[in-house]
Amino acid sequence: MEPRAYGVFMTQSGAAPITGVLLAAGAGTRLGRGPKALLPFRGRTLVEVLADTLFDGGCREVVVVLGAEAERIAGTTELDRYTVVENANWAKGMSGSFRAGIEAASPGNSILVALVDQPGLTPTAVSRLLGSHRPGRITAAAYPDESGHLKRRHPVIIDVGLRAEAAAAASGDTGARSFLKAHPGLVDLVDCSDLCSGEDLDTKDQLHLLDG
Q1: Peptide bond before 155: cis, by omega within 30 degrees of 0?
Q2: Along the 212 residues of the chain, how does pLDDT read in single tens digits?
């Protein structure tokens, strides 16, 4: 039976609460339409919808990390119910935003890291990840490739006991990638392909992802 979504925190018994960290600091250069956070989506903006998705999926709190045009985004979106932080060094890569999100999350919480350019993410997928997470582990959304093998994608839950090590390992534009590659035995893959698309919105030919 799936955990219930919409703001109700549910994970494996004994697990720490989970903070959703939404990385939304990029300038959207490849897409050429300004920061992806401000792209129109479902009558709102992508950053607003994705922040609500994390909370509605069961995250105890949500941290939104802004960077490019942070002041404009903060002034034109409704994110008051969430913690909004700015990564002033966003242009140096995702690692700074990753660390800023971890630092802003409540002490004692595990973190679920999500990207603002995944419009297909749903509360039910977030809820499945929360319900599948086990203490001391890393839980990642996964989607099958053409051969049927599951490939790790976002969101990724990093257990509270691994937060500091994951932040220290982040560099450049890798975020948690180097840490995850260094600890493959800790990663549990959760197939979310029946609930949402794991596709990233990176190029103009993917703008159809905003039609959902």
Answers
A1: yes
A2: 233 333 444 455 567 999 999 999 998 878 777 899 999 999 999 999 999 999 999 999 999 999 999 999 999 999 999 999 999 999 888 899 999 999 999 999 999 999 999 999 999 999 999 999 999 999 999 999 989 899 999 999 999 999 999 999 988 777 788 899 889 999 999 999 999 988 888 888 888 888 86
Q: Hey, what are 135's tokens?
A: 């203490």
- pTM of the predicted model as reported, rounded to 2 decimal places: 0.91
What's the per-residue H, E or C state across 14-39? CCCCEEEEEEECCCCCCCCCCCHHHC
Instruction: Using the structure block, give the residue that is written with the tokens 């630092």.
Output: 103
Query: What do you get for the CA distance between the two ends of the chain, in Å?
Result: 27
* Residue 154 in tokens: 């976002």
